[in-house]
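User: I've been trying to design a sequence by hand for this structure and keep getting stuck. Would you show me what you'd pick, starting by listing the structure so we're on the same page?

Assistant: Good idea, let's start from the same input. This is the structure you sent:
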């Protein structure tokens, strides 16, 4: 059975945005879904996220696709490179890498920012990377988004006026994710 690992961002479960529809679509394609719940908001630490991911490490090793959102797009770089795990397909939704200090409200997230060396290693470990982004993301500047794509060699998928694809953007589905999976697995 094919396996999809879903990694949320700093605000919690993808079900708050596009997760419910995505999981239905993945199940219809025959995917087993693994979705860890990491600490959120002010309780987030890189160490706690590593501990949670370690609990599903075997699932990550077996994943046909890893779909990550926001902070999860940075974490997957850190996790795969630290553990030397290869992946056939990573789909980042609202992926960005800060090129400068993001402000004191986000200081505690700085350990998640991948280094250039981690990004280089990530490009060797992951066969296909996509970054789905929008023009009006309220978290990442466009520079941060394109920096993510450049450093990870991600193919960019632009969707107009979808913000950060989270709960406040009111995005309930991203059909492009399933299209990418179908293209990569010849459905």
């Amino acid at each position: 059975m094919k396996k999809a690992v879903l990694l949320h961002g700093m605000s919690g479960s993808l079900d708050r945005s596009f997760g419910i529809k995505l999981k239905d679509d993945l199940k219809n394609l025959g995917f087993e879904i693994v979705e860890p719940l990491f600490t959120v908001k002010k309780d987030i630490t890189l160490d706690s996220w590593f501990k949670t991911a370690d609990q599903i490490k075997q699932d990550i090793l077996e994943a046909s696709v890893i779909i990550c959102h926001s902070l999860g797009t940075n974490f997957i770089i850190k996790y795969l490179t630290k553990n030397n795990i290869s992946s056939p397909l990573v789909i980042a939704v609202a992926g960005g890498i800060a090129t400068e200090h993001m402000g004191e409200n986000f200081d505690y997230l700085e350990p998640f920012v991948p280094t250039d060396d981690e990004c280089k290693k990530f490009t060797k470990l992951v066969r296909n990377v996509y970054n789905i982004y929008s023009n009006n993301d309220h978290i990442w500047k466009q520079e941060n988004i394109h920096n993510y794509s450049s450093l990870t060699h991600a193919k960019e998928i632009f969707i107009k006026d979808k913000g950060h694809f989270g709960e406040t953007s009111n995005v309930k589905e991203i059909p492009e994710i399933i299209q990418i999976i179908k293209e990569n697995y010849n459905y």
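That's my pick for every position. To get oriented when you compare it with your attempt: The chain is about 35% helix and 20% strand. The helical segments are 19-28, 46-54, 57-62, 71-83, 116-125, 142-152, 175-184.
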